Amino acid sequence: MEQKKLRWMRLDNAAKIYPAARRRNWNNMFRVSATLSRPVDPAVLQTALEATIGRFPSIAVRLRKGVFWYYLEEIPSPPRVRQDSACPLAHIRFSEIRRCAFRVLYYENRIAVEIYHALTDGNGGLVFLKTLLAEYLEQKEGILIPPGQGVLDRKAPPREEELEDSFLKYSGAVSASRAEESAYHIEGTKETDGYLNQTTGILDAEAALSLARSYGATLTEFLTAVMILSILKIQQRERPRAHRRRAIKILVPVNLRRLFPSETMRNFALFATPGIDPKLGEYTLPEVVRMVHYQMGAEINPKKMSARIATNVHTEQVMLLKLMPLFIKNAAMKLVYNMVGESKACLSLSNLGQVQIPAEMQPYVTRFDFVLGAQAQQHNNCGVLSYAGKLYINLTRNIREPKLERAFFTDLRGLGLHVKVESNQRD
Asked: Which residue, of 80, 222, 238, 311, has the greatest Cβ tally within 10 A?
């Protein structure tokens, strides 16, 4: 029997950094999950995955190594769904990513998808999860769920627009500078076994949004400002002398599909890095909210983002870099990542916004969560979304001390918001 020829595709512009930046015990993964009203049936979940996976040729892949670049290759068969563990984003070896770069997990009522960031961003991952959920519920509950609100038609072939590298399409003519001051990082005792601590704050979404609006800000801007002040308090305790304090900046991913008419299912996000300089004196919350609001407003527009895209695209297209063997490229890109990547922010705060699903699914889905893994150098991260009137803030860390969680959720409570806290901390 003739062996099927497997489809392959180049990594998108943003994805190229992830294989190069990997560490022995770290690969850049993220997680989206849904909690159902009934226990998950693993057998049905497996058949749902098999029916869904062909609709996502940029996710149903493994990472392969070429002479000049890594590339993505279609997996020959869908992976087996696995039972989840108490630790989200349990370490995945690079050798496993080279066999299959995502995994589907279940535990009691929860279905989770964990994806290597070279495949897609959080928005693409959420579309994949919602489409998988729709297929699962159709098979399990015998209901018909039409496409829409992030659920793709599983019977339709993938469209070329979903597979494009939108960074190349919307790159500007002028590049932006990468120069940026390095930021403070929270220190702590590293977990020795790779365990990822997850603490979730659950709030009333309307109450949080109303409070943000009272400060003249979006919810993301408001949460970013509160996060900045929470980190400032930690730094003030650890570095009493003001002249020794470093900048506090938050990396806020921006979904570029809101600025450019792209339908790609691959990575299409950049970031803003609003922040403060603690050396300049004390800060109030209204002051920091205003600063974050104007800083993000100045950065998040098509012209600025097009120039930011151009910086990365033009670098990739330098002929000398194109001709370098992969092992030299990896060393160079890892150096750049260390210099201008994680060092420029305290952590990421990524808000996927309000999750919408078709009405037919709503009785069966009680909750969504978005979890970012810790980075190579940053010990903390934050994923946010809202669903069915609740705001879910997932703080993760790979250190033992819950400094940020205590400070951040205490500050939100101090502002009059009721916060229910859940944690998987072991002691």
From this structure: 222
CB 88 within 8 A of CB 369: no
Separation CA 271–CA 254 (nearest Å): 5
Give, rounded to a whole angstrom, the gap between the first and last alpha carbons of the chain: 56
Q: Tens digits of per-residue pLDDT, 34-76?
A: 999 999 999 999 999 999 999 999 999 999 988 778 899 999 9
Owner of token pair 């002479």: 67
HSE, CB side, 13 Å, CA atoms: give it for residue 373: 22
> Tokens at residue 215, please?
């400060």
What confidence tier does 217 reach under pLDDT thresholds 50, 70, 90? very high
**Rounded Cα gap, residues 244 and 144, in angstroms:** 60
Q: Which one, of 230, 219, 269, lies nearest residue 386 by Cα? A: 219
pLDDT at 418 > cutoff 70: yes
Strand partners, 351: 384
CB atoms under 10 Å from CB of 185, counted, come to: 19
Dump pLDDT digits (tens) for 381-411.
999 999 999 999 999 999 999 999 999 999 9
CA distances from 130 to 113, 119, 260, 358 (A): 10, 17, 23, 10
Vertex 384, ends 383 and 386: CA angle to 5°? Answer: 150
